[in-house]
Amino acid sequence: MFSKRMVLIIGVIVLVAVNMIWLSVHSKRPYPSSGPDRNALTFISPFQEAVTLTSRFLKGVWFHYFDLVSTGMENDRLLKELEMSLETINRLEEERLANIRLRNLLEFQENADAHGIAAEVIGKDPSPWFKTIIINKGRKDNIGKGMPVVVPQGIVGQVIDATAGYAKVLLVIDQNSAVDALVQNTRARGIIKGEPPGGCILQYVLRRHDLMVGETVIASGLDGVFPKGLRIGRISEIVKQNAGIFQEVVIRPYVDFEKLEEVLVIPVPPKHEFTNP
Questions:
Q1: Whose CA, among 60, 99, 189, 201, lies 20 to 30 Å from 27?
Q2: Which candidate, 202, 192, 140, 144, places its Cα nearest to that of 171?
Q3: What percent of the chain has pLDDT over 70?
């Protein structure tokens, strides 16, 4: 009915019990006084030693387990402190970079004598058909429709709508945008139009103008929106059709519209020409 393993376990339990009874009976005797006692001592001692060693082993494992638990808890605490430190470092780095961008805006504002309003980009139009951004300044900050929006690198766009605390800006790379422009060296005129997926075309440039790739294109100021001299981009390609009086010029904007974070809104465009810092 009982397996060999069960019989062995019961036998060990019985021997341990006998050992405990024998120890309790003879505990008052300093040494065995008879042969049977000595024989019992000889028989039981190995089992007593095994029990003692097992007890010590289990005790060591138990305390070692608690040491591991304590070490694990300490590691968890240190990892949390490390994560908090990394988060603080990252936040401070973002603040440092933001300060650099704002300092550049202020320097641009001083050099160009543009009394603008700094604003933060808080949203972008997800539609592939429209290129607009949302800034965190609006009518209460004296920002209104039609005002130009710039960064030190060049023209961003113009305000097309404003609420009390926010404004929508149409970027120059939008197909609905139009900026009267000049090629800085040759003074050839044209109209900057946005073109997918994020570039510009200088249209209505007469064929008689000899243009070169790499030339800078600036705002002419004749549209009454963007101050004269503000940079737009540089010529990256020139297309002359076999017929017609115009040539088409591909423009690469100076502004990286994917990385816009802070901009400058100019409430009243200055009358004089801008000088590039």
A1: 60
A2: 192
A3: 60
